[in-house]
UniProtKB/TrEMBL annotation:
This is oxoglutarate dehydrogenase (succinyl-transferring). Its cofactor is thiamine diphosphate. CDD domains: TPP_E1_OGDC_like. It holds the Pfam family OxoGdeHyase_C. Belongs to the alpha-ketoglutarate dehydrogenase family. One of its GO terms (molecular function) is oxoglutarate dehydrogenase (succinyl-transferring) activity. Gene3D superfamilies: 3.40.50.12470, 3.40.50.970, Multifunctional 2-oxoglutarate metabolism enzyme, C-terminal domain, TPP helical domain. Keywords: Oxidoreductase, Thiamine pyrophosphate. E1 component of the 2-oxoglutarate dehydrogenase (OGDH) complex which catalyzes the decarboxylation of 2-oxoglutarate, the first step in the conversion of 2-oxoglutarate to succinyl-CoA and CO(2). PANTHER family: 2-OXOADIPATE DEHYDROGENASE COMPLEX COMPONENT E1, 2-OXOGLUTARATE DEHYDROGENASE.
Length: 942
């Protein structure tokens, strides 16, 4: 029994705080507690129901009460007075713990005072057995920061000020005792009360004055134009200023910001220093930079170098479409690339900052995906500072009851145990204070942290929207609200920080500057040159047909193969993997043709050896979705991956480029957007996202439509990322056949992306090398057949790697006499081999030529025309595809083919019939359709 182990001298009511502290010590470090007590605490933690209790200390407190109630070895251990005293002490400790867990519900967070302020029973002393008579009694405060003993009235006052003032804290969901203790020390030590000097207070007033004045100036100058005003949340500008100024002192050199359109114009001008005159030009439809399509002003990005007391900080605001939170993983990817360019393994020099709307933060699944990336090896950025502009309305007309199913919009952040600092937006000092705390937490623990800035939206969703239509009571309160600037100015006047005339003078000075299209003072550095800036000029004005040598000498191929097929001494690969390695050695020796896995590996090995970086991500990318890549080898005699895995491509040369292959989380939207962001900041790396199946990209369509295919024409952003899309009709059902080729081709225009459908292994080798060696940065979309990965006819002789290059068009070399050809069949991808076999079976080699179009966009018009010109008696050109007629490439390239025909030639089609589904689900029907369109392709009509 426990009472025979634990010393009886501890079991008195006066020692309850000792037990509390001992248990706190146990939670922090179990080995620091004596063996008998450690055993006791471990048993309590395992007791039924212990894990479900709100307060971690409840099991020990209740167990201690039970021990004191019972006699031990026939002796009573406490008098009635001791027992009552102990009960009171335990109640005080429970009350402290309750305030830590639930205090945010009593905090003064809402500037409009519309939030539910129902008393939380657990925070009521009376509900804990404490009375007015106890208010003067001294109690031990346990782990509460401050004096070890205080009257109950003082304890309550400290708890209310810390947890129930203008700041509400949520951190007890964090399992790390170090992190929880850090938050307690910070906020309980300060009583959640900022103590700024007069100079800092004047700076804060200046920031919120600039925020409010800009909005009101735009409201009167450009009546009715959309700008998505920040009014009601002006304290966010002061918070960002605090972040920039304070971050440099902790070694931060870059802050990368992602945000939607609410308040974006204010951030551009008042945080990043965009000239007001340039903003005004955009309002007037006169952009300073002409782009093929351009974008609305509240989507545009900007970068500047801002001076601070500890040196310049480069601040970038990422370009963002209207899809709100989709920019978040893009920012994370860009940050990761910048950190790696700086060789910043501690991830301290570049920090991501994401600014959210309350409804979007809770509602859009990409946030869950981005949080899920945050602590993984291939995607972590050392923690993100999240600022939620919580205007309590959401998107347009939402009611809180309809916006989410959680108490707070920030509850999604609890999935990664991020601390959440709620703060009243009408207290700009508190807002700046929690921003400083958020920065310090992020830099200390390398984890995400969230600020929930509770404010309001003064106007409608946009400036043409009347919010009284749907939120009449809320907007009656807003109409009477003085605004944060006026209230803070009045507060500083009362504190004798400045006079009312000086406060009004700040408004006049800012308006006068706006009239001139200028800033009140210079806020950015104009001639500063950053050490790690990326130079994109070599990639400007280049063409997809730019000649480049992608071949490798045979000696280099064999040397590289020797490197990436070797394994460390004592390492035991899986037998299947060993066969792959042995086969690759034979391929390099010319003893057998090169397969697709070997072609890929040769491309990567050659690139990293020459100093280029390669980054591949996808849900099975290490092994390869179809077990063809084997870039990561696993020792069959070791359990742990970190000890039993070996990556040959990281061991090619002493000064090689980085090689990273990642088995990503199961979220295509967040991962693809992340890789796009990474590639935006890494033109010297081959950045690849691999879909497990082509249809998996459906969940990432926002990233495809709004970034990958349109980022250059909207924002002038070059990007060279590569997307590998498994595609091919093999009877695998509706989803896993098609990568929706038609969608990608529909998005093609203005040479925005490259769409490749290779049919030979060597083509894969050359196109991957071309993507980096050529001074041309456009997204590369590769539709690759899973069937061809092991199809012998699609493998390539070693000579195709030492000679030639990527061929946009592959002509027919089997035709003996081109003059006899009556029909040229054009196709792309794996269907070529079905057509070639059908032609051979029917002995149609003289009459039908088969030409492969390997690059569907930019369409190789000249090369196709040259192939067709070889056949002087050509009567008919037929496009053959394995996709249904209403899908695939047919309707997207038909006009291009028609433009190549003479008046005497006709254009025909063969393929599966139009279908609402991407493919059939029955193998018998799949085979019947294949036979039907092959027969059509091989039959001449009379």
């Amino acid at each position: 029994m426990m009472q025979n182990k634990v010393s009886h001298s501890y079991l008195f009511g006066g020692n309850a705080p000792f037990i509390e502290e001992l248990y706190e010590q146990f939670l922090t470090d179990p080995t620091s507690v004596e063996g008998e007590w450690r055993d006791y605490f471990e048993k309590l933690a395992q007791a039924p129901g212990a894990a479900e209790r709100d307060v971690p200390h409840q099991p020990i407190q209740e167990s201690f009460i039970q021990l004191v109630k019972k006699p031990i070895n026939g002796q009573r251990v406490s008098t009635a007075t001791d027992w009552e005293s102990m009960q009171k002490q335990v109640s005080v400790l429970k009350l402290i713990a309750s305030w830590r867990v639930l205090g945010s519900r009593q905090a003064n967070l809402d500037p409009l005072k519309r939030m539910d302020q129902t008393i939380v029973a657990e925070l009521d002393p009376a509900q804990n057995g404490l009375t007015d008579a106890d208010m003067a009694v001294q109690f031990n405060v346990g782990s509460l920061v401050g004096p070890q003993k205080l009257p109950l009235s003082e304890i309550l006052a400290r708890l209310k000020q810390t947890y129930g003032g203008n700041i509400g804290l949520e951190y007890m969901h964090i399992t790390s005792s170090d992190e929880k203790r850090w938050v307690q020390q910070r906020f309980e030590g300060d009583l959640s009360t900022p103590r700024y000097n007069a100079e800092t207070k004047r700076r804060i007033l200046k920031q919120i004055t600039a925020a409010e004045t800009l909005e009101r100036y735009l409201h009167t100058k450009y009546v009715g134009q959309k700008r998505f005003s920040l009014e009601g949340g002006e304290s966010a500008i002061a918070a960002l200023d605090t972040l920039i100024q304070e971050s440099s002192g902790q070694g931060v050199q870059e802050l990368i910001i992602g945000m939607a359109h609410r308040g974006r114009l204010n951030v551009l001008v008042n945080t990043l220093g965009k000239l007001p005159r340039d903003l005004f030009a955009e309002f007037e439809g006169k952009p300073t930079v002409e782009l093929p399509s351009g974008d609305v002003k509240y989507h545009m990005g900007f970068s500047s170098d801002i001076p601070t007391a500890n040196g310049p900080v480069h601040v970038s605001l990422a370009f963002n479409p209207s899809h709100l939170e989709i920019v978040n993983p893009v920012v994370e990817g860009s940050v990761r690339a910048r950190q790696e360019r700086r060789k910043d393994a501690e991830r301290k020099t570049v920090v991501p900052v994401l600014i959210h709307g309350d409804s979007a933060f809770a509602g859009l699944g990409v946030n869950q995906g981005t949080f899920n990336l945050s602590q993984t090896r291939g995607y972590g950025t050392g923690g993100t500072i999240h600022l939620v502009i919580n205007n309590q309305v959401g998107f347009t007309t939402s009611d809180n009851r309809d916006m989410r199913s959680t108490l707070y919009c920030t509850d999604v952040a609890k999935m990664v145990e991020a601390p959440i600092f709620h703060v009243n937006g009408d207290d700009p000092e508190a807002v700046c204070y929690v921003m400083q705390a958020a920065l310090d937490y992020r830099m200390t623990f390398k984890k995400d942290v969230v600020i929930d800035l509770v404010c309001y939206r003064k106007l409608g969703h946009n400036e043409g929207d009347d919010p009284f239509l749907t939120q009449p009571m809320m907007y009656k309160k807003i109409a009477k609200h003085a605004g944060v600037r006026a209230m803070y100015a009045e507060r500083l006047v009362a504190e004798n920080i400045l006079t009312a005339e000086e406060a009004d003078g700040l408004i006049r000075a800012y308006r006068d500057a706006l009239d001139k299209g200028e800033h009140v003072e210079q806020t950015v550095l104009t001639n500063y040159r950053r050490e790690f800036a990326v130079d994109w000029t070599p990639f400007l004005g280049t063409h997809w047909a730019h000649p480049v040598d992608t071949t490798l000498p045979l000696a280099d191929i064999q040397r590289l193969t020797e490197k990436f097929t070797a394994v460390p001494e004592g390492f035991k690969p899986h037998p299947t993997v060993q066969k792959v390695l042995t086969a690759r050695q034979a391929m390099a020796a010319g003893e057998q043709n090169v397969d697709w896995g070997m072609a890929e590996t040769l491309a990567y090995a050659s690139l990293v050896t020459n100093g280029y970086g390669v980054r591949i991500s996808g849900e099975d990318s290490g092994r390869g979705t179809f077990s063809h890549r084997h870039a990561v080898l696993h020792d069959q005699n070791r359990e742990r991956w970190d000890q039993g895995s070996y990556v040959p491509l990281r061991n090619m040369a002493d000064n090689q480029g980085d090689f990273l292959v990642i088995d990503s989380i199961l979220n295509e939207e967040a991962v693809l957007a992340y890789e796009y962001g990474y590639a935006c900041s890494a033109p010297d790396q081959l950045v690849i996202w691999e879909a497990q199946f082509g249809d998996f990209a459906n969940g990432a369509q926002v990233a495809i439509d709004q970034f990958i295919t349109s980022g250059e024409t909207k924002w002038g952003r070059l990007n060279g990322m590569t997307v590998l899309m498994p595609h091919g009709y093999d009877g695998q059902g509706p989803e896993h056949s098609s990568a929706r080729l038609e969608r990608w081709l529909q998005l093609c225009a203005e040479h925005n992306i490259q769409v490749i459908m290779p049919s030979q292994a060597s083509q894969m080798f050359h196109v991957l090398r071309r993507q980096l060696v050529r001074p041309y940065r456009k997204p590369l979309i590769v539709f690759m057949s899973k069937r061809l990965l092991r199809y012998k006819d699609s493998m390539s002789p070693i000579e195709d790697f030492t000679n030639g290059g990527f061929r946009p068009v592959i002509g027919d070399t089997t035709v003996a006499d081109p003059k006899k050809v009556k029909r040229v069949v054009l196709c792309a991808g794996q269907v070529y081999y079905d057509l070639a076999n059908a032609r051979k079976e029917r002995s149609m080699d003289e009459e039908i030529a088969i030409v492969r179009i390997e690059q569907l966009y930019p369409f190789p018009t000249e090369q196709v025309a040259a192939e067709l010109a070889r056949y002087s008696n050509l009567k008919e050109v037929m496009w053959v595809q394995e996709e249904p007629k209403n899908q695939g490439a047919w309707y997207q390239i038909r006009h291009r083919l028609e433009g190549l025909l003479s008046a005497k030639q006709t254009l025909a089609f063969a393929g599966r019939p139009s279908s609402a589904s991407p493919a059939v689900g029955y193998m018998s029907k799949h085979v019947a359709q294949l036979k039907a369109f092959l027969e059509e392709a091989m039959t001449f009509t009379k």
